Amino acid sequence: MTIVIEQPRLEGDVVVEKKIQNESNKVTLDGGFVAPEINSFGHTFRDYDAESERKKTVEEFYRMNHIHQSVDFVKKMREEYGKLNRVKMSIWECCELLNEFVDESDPDLDEPQIEHLLQTAEAIRRDYPDQDWLHLTGLIHDLGKVLLHEKFGALPQWAVVGDTFPVGCAFDESNVHHKYFKENPDYNNPAYNTKLGIYSEGCGLDNVMMSWGHDDYMYLVAKENKTTLPSAALFIIRYHSFYPMHRSNAYTYLMNEEDAENLKWLKIFNKYDLYSKSKVRIDVEKVKPYYLSLIEKYFPSKLRW
Ligand SMILES: [Fe+2]
Ligand SMILES: [Fe+2]
């Protein structure tokens, strides 16, 4: 079932629309506090029941996320998935896997996942024709969602999507549904609940453990497979769901100069990630050769996942 959702993040008066998949009662959240606008039963955003359902689903998602994303959990996931011993495949094969998988769980989806990736990439390409690395970043930024796939352990939604945040230091108030952190084992741990926690001022986000999800996983995959993409691309991949930082300017005390530079690109990228869900269909076969050439330029032919 497909539902169109609204992101209650407002930019001026613009309400950002995003598309998510809904498989039975599971909702896929992508880097943001998201909510259904109309579902396939025709409930609208204003419908009281649909509205309260939406709130419950999103709250429950963040309740689970905030309770479980702890230092121990992140360490465990980084260690487990850092082995990269599950699958060997190319970047394009992963696009197809994600596509097929999303299609399977979502038979009514009118735009396959690959189109979100390509729409993001193509919109960036139109406005920044010379930044080919940014086009490729658009294409691959969500590939970590394969964590939802059986082959990757079929992780629960709260361990794959949604806003991300650092663990090992105090949870900033700007995190959505902050109250649920009270049930996180780190919340009352004096080693982890001060402003800096286990980190030092300006240590750089590279040295910070982020809550586990598709962002950190794809970052790991790209880095460990020795991509030649610039650091701004890796920054975008790892932090595109880190809304407390790129939307609310929180956690700046963990950033270094390079992070501040890269943040400029992330802010540019984020607009395309959110707004590119246009109704313009992409002719996949037509643009495929261009993206294959970029993949060849920046990645080995087969990657370890
Ligand atoms: Fe994402
Ligand atoms: Fe995305």
Automatic annotation (TrEMBL):
One GO BP annotation of this record: L-ascorbic acid biosynthetic process
First-level EC class: oxidoreductase
Pathway of action: Polyol metabolism; myo-inositol degradation into D-glucuronate; D-glucuronate from myo-inositol: step 1/1
Name of the protein in question: Inositol oxygenase
Lineage, opening ranks: Eukaryota, Viridiplantae, Streptophyta, Embryophyta, Tracheophyta
PANTHER family: INOSITOL OXYGENASE 1, MYOINOSITOL OXYGENASE
Catalyses which reaction(s): myo-inositol + O2 = D-glucuronate + H2O + H(+)
Residue positions binding Fe cation: H116, H141, D142, H214, H240, D273
Compartments (UniProt record): Cytoplasm
Alphabetized Gene3D superfamilies for the sequence: Hypothetical protein af1432 (1.10.3210.10)
Keywords assigned: Ascorbate biosynthesis, Cytoplasm, Iron, Metal-binding, Oxidoreductase
EC number, as in UniProt: 1.13.99.1
InterPro entries named in the record: Inositol_oxygenase
Taxonomy, superkingdom: Eukaryota
Cofactor, free-text remark: Binds 2 iron ions per subunit.
GO terms for cellular component: cytoplasm
Entry's family note: Belongs to the myo-inositol oxygenase family.
Cofactor(s) annotated in UniProt: Fe cation
